Amino acid sequence: MNAQEKAQCVEWYIETKSDIVVQRRFRTRYGRHPPSRNSIRAWYDKFMLTGSIKHSKNNGRPKLPNEAIENVQQTFLRSPQKSIRTAARELNLSKSSVQRILKKNLKMKPYKLQILQQITPDDKLKRKHFAVTVLDRLTADENFLKKVVFSDEATFHVCGKVNK
Fold this sequence. Notes:
single chain; mainly alpha; two-stranded antiparallel sheet; 2 strands; 2% strand; elongated
């Protein structure tokens, strides 16, 4: 629905004071499904209130100043372990604003370490045996890896921490 069609609907509504008549005229003139009665009334109300049917440019959530984004970034660069609540209190921002800045503006995500079972010396032998078996099967069948389903991932750090 373009602005000209909306303006025509408002003009017809002012003339007839009937949204049904406006719908009938719209269908006759444009040959397609007319706007809803609520839309016609909303356009009329907006026109009477503002003198225009165009969208207001200042709708929605106000944009956070770049200074706030920079302050949040500096806070978490200095103290990466700091909680969002503490940072919000220190920066005099809401918790949700800090969270939104971290996620949307700074593209940061929470790091959640998941601890799994400890790796024992016996596990090294089992892993080596598994690797040799997979290599043997891969040598026998080139499409072997295409038949394997890898369903879980984990990152094993040298220090012993596991990130699943």
